[in-house]
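Just scan this pair:

***
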Amino acid sequence: MKAKNGLLYLAAIALGFLLTACQSPPAPHVGEAAQPSTQRIAQAALDEGARQYEAGNFQGAIKVLSTTGEINLAKPDTQIKAHKLLAFSYCATGKTSFCHAEFVKILSIDPGFKLSESERSHPIWGPVFESIRK
């Protein structure tokens, strides 16, 4: 009887080890898995927005950059570049209140952000940006 109980005990332990060995590793957190693809999507939108902007298609840049939600989840430098292109595009199309709002977003990400000298001296967005900095 003792031998039978001992064998059952050993069998239970062995079964426990086998079941533990067969467990799947824990799934990665959603944020960890999504971040690289989110950054790729945001960067692709930024690249396309920059192409549209450089081609003088400010409405196209606005459409791409303002409808890609991943931009707001991307790395801060990607967010800043996208919001800066949006600000410039809005200013270029006469939508200074939207331009202003984009600069506010930039400064909320990086309070020390500054435009380059040539950007600061631009007759449209330079004054809009400086009005926020005061």
About this structure: Residues 35-133 form a domain with the Serine Threonine Protein Phosphatase 5, Tetratricopeptide repeat fold (CATH 1.25.40). The CA atoms of residues 70 and 123 lie 31 Å apart. Residues 14-34 have pLDDT under 50 and may be disordered.
